[in-house]
Design brief:
By secondary structure, the chain is of the alpha/beta class. It has 13 helices and twelve strands. The protein has three domains: 168 residues, Rossmann fold, CATH 3.40.50; 87 residues, 6-phosphogluconate dehydrogenase C-terminal fold; 81 residues, Alpha-Beta Plaits (2-Layer Sandwich), CATH 3.30.70.
């Protein structure tokens, strides 16, 4: 696929605006439309997209249309875009694929369905709105490409080529398989985070000091609870069977752990933790890191430039950062960085950090 695409983005929240920014960075012409004129204006200011007053005006002459709206509105907007942009490939960014493809097939004209391709960029965060957008949100991420029963192979290929060109990784995947997998690794974490935060908030009514004791682990686990309630309600209901199955499996794991703890089965509990720890360490590494990873815990002062000093020390030692997380202390004034590096350079990383006055502790 050559450069110079004419991109239309329908829905200019964090993902839509990030797509606009990545497209502009790649040299594409970008237009955008949002039902909220204020959101559209912010997106245009941030990304440089050309704001349009209607869907029809936005997609006119486009070659690739991204529908970046809530799940329930995608079928109608996709069908309209397929009519208004007769030569364009139309795709969506929803985290549910089977439901969307079925609903688009019901809403669109049969002769247009060869140009609709299901898509799901596995990026973003709990934040919403164009002010949180960045082209870097899409850098290196997996972007699922799902064909419906009537999707032309050439249409999926064109979308995949564009995804690759902007620096993401297109992965073809059957819609039903996609929904089953994201229910486990995307939707279930949202449910678990929301349930845990709701439980703690309820307990707070009887124990007003409970959230004062919330440390980094609780804050990490409940981060997703700050996500959009309306957005996630739509997603979960659209993928209800797969998420119900994932919740049942998770409940079984929790019940097994409870039983082991109640029975005092120390060896079994430790084995469960060791198995999960090893799996998490494998997850932290990029696919090309074959030698395993090490995790360093580093106390840092909460001041401007502290993180820059840390990363500069590693850069000078030519140590690549595979993953990085920051946990802020509720008392303020300090924080903790959890840093993941390839195991073979862990000693070099420790020496480099110690040389800059940091005190790294190797956790694994």
């Amino acid at each position: 696929m050559t450069s110079g695409e004419r991109i239309a983005v329908l829905g200019t929240g964090v993902i839509g605006t990030s797509i606009a920014m990545a497209a502009a960075r790649a040299g594409d012409e970008v237009a955008g439309f949002d039902a909220d004129a204020t959101v559209l204006a912010k997106a245009a200011e941030r990304s440089g997209l050309r704001p349009e007053a209607s869907l029809a005006a936005c997609v006119k002459r486009s070659t690739l249309v991204f529908v970046c709206t809530p799940v329930q509105s995608i079928p109608r907007l996709a069908a309209e875009a397929l009519v208004e942009a007769e030569d364009a490939i139309v795709t969506d960014v929803a985290s549910v694929k089977s439901h969307v493809l079925i609903e688009v097939e019901a809403a669109a004209r049969p002769q247009d369905l060869d140009r609709f391709v299901g898509g799901h960029p596995m990026g973003g965060s709990e934040r919403s709105g164009p002010e949180w957008a960045s082209a870097s949100v899409l850098d290196g991420i997996v972007w699922v490409v799902s064909r419906g029963a009537r999707t032309a192979e050439a249409s999926a290929g064109r979308l995949a080529a564009w995804i690759d060109r902007i620096g993401a990784r297109p992965v073809p995947m059957d819609p039903a398989r996609h929904d089953r997998l994201v229910a486990m690794v995307s939707h279930l974490p949202q449910v678990a985070s929301t349930a845990l935060m709701g439980l703690a908030a309820t307990e707070e009514s009887g124990e007003p000091d409970i959230l004062l004791l919330a440390a980094g682990g609780f804050r990490d686990l409940t981060r997703l609870a700050a996500s959009s309630p309306h957005l996630w309600s739509d997603i979960l209901l659209a993928n209800r069977d797969a998420i119900a199955e994932a919740i049942d499996l998770y409940v079984k794991r929790l019940t097994d752990m409870r039983d082991m703890v109640q029975s005092g089965l120390a060896d079994e509990v430790e084995r469960s933790f060791a198995y999960a720890k090893q799996a998490r360490l494998s997850l932290a590494a990029k696919p090309q890191v074959k030698t395993g990873v090490a995790v360093l815990q580093i106390p840092v002062p909460d001041r401007p430039g502290a993180l820059a000093d840390l990363t500069a020390a590693l850069g000078a030692a030519r140590v690549n950062i595979e993953d990085l997380q920051i946990v802020h202390s509720p008392e303020g004034g300090r924080g903790t960085v959890h840093l993941t590096v390839a195991a073979v350079v862990a000693n070099e990383a420790e020496r480099a950090l110690a040389g800059r006055g940091f005190e790294p502790v190797r956790l694994a």
